[in-house]
Amino acid sequence: MIRHILKIVWNRKRANALIVVEIFLSFLVLFAVLTLASALIGSVRQPLGFEWREVWNIRVESNRMAEESGRAERERQALELMMRELRTMPEVVAVAGSAMPAYSMGSMEGIWTINGKRVFVSQDQVTDGFAEVMQLKVLRGRWFGPQDDAANYAPVVIDADLAAAVYGSEDPVGQKFDNQEEREIRVIGVVPSYRKSGEFANFGKPLNIVFERVSVNNSERLSGNLLIRLRPGTPASFEQALNERLHQIAPQMNFRIRQMSRMRQFAHRTALFPLVALAMVATFLIAMVVLGLSGVLWQNVTRRTREIGLRRAVGASGPAVQRQIVGEVAMLTTLAVVLGLGVVTQLPLLGLLTVITPSAFAGGLAGSLAAIYALTVLCGVYPGWLASRVQPAQALHYE
Question: What's this model's pTM, rounded to 2 decimal places?
Answer without folding.
Answer: 0.74
